[in-house]
Amino acid sequence: MMRCRKCGQRAVINMRHHRLALCEEHYLEWFIAQTQRAIEKYRMFRREHRILVAVSGGKDSLSLWDVLLQLGYEADGLYIGLGIDGGIGYSDVSLEKVRAFHERHPERTLHIVDMKETYGESIPDLARRTRRGRGKPCAVCGLVKRHIMNRVALEGGYFALATGHNLDDEAAVLFQNVLHWQTGYLARQAPVLEEGGGLARKVKPFCRFYEREVAAYALMRGIDYIYDECPYAVGAKTIYYKELLNQLELKSPGSKHQFYLQFLEARRRGLITFAGGQENVDLHPCERCGQPTTAPGLCAFCRLWEGQADGAAVQLL
User: Which of 86-95, 236-245, 300-309 has the highest mean pLDDT?
Assistant: First the structure.
């Protein structure tokens, strides 16, 4: 039987990469402290700042909102209703989970943006109609979510927009970007994307936690979240890359942690630099919505509603 490193009681989780086993009480304590440590290390925000948390109904985003509230931050939530069914009422169930969590914290604000009500079309509708989507919702979903999150964060006067991306997410994206040498994306992959040019500040407080660590936190805290993946995520390349990295992690514990953090450290020390960062592009307001874009006239988001191609605009949101 594993014993907690701090108190000697029965451990409920063993983190081989940290060589650390902890009981439930000390794991929750460790998890919250590590989140605060990441916030401070990467200078994400301070106590006096208002934070907007993008919540999907999944374990990562709801756990992040929970931790920030426990740490005493003024953190509100933003849920975007995408109108995805997939035979399981995916969006409806997700919203139920978010509302249930918010009921436990009525003092905080929950912003809800319903795609169908606000813009007249759901994500599947938009994907079927536009050339950018070509019937594949994932192609338009990311663009739409980034646009809405940026708008609500700026309009609400929030200091930063926080997302629940964990280490597995970040390592898989990094692996994909390195594999294809997507230097523009590599330049923007970081725990913090600074605000400027009409773009809200974006932060990822969970970027150093493995997915299983976040899941363990949600379970111990009794957070009810949607277990199903988005039905359109089946077969996604990022899931395949996660599986490859999981095999590596099994053979060499801590590999994902090392891969991601050493990338950040090398960039911090100036050992690697990439063109294509936010500071290297010419941003100007969209003629219709006012959000930043590199394209002349309308931004890619506004062009979606006219069924136009996405053109050569650089998406930084």
Answer: 236-245
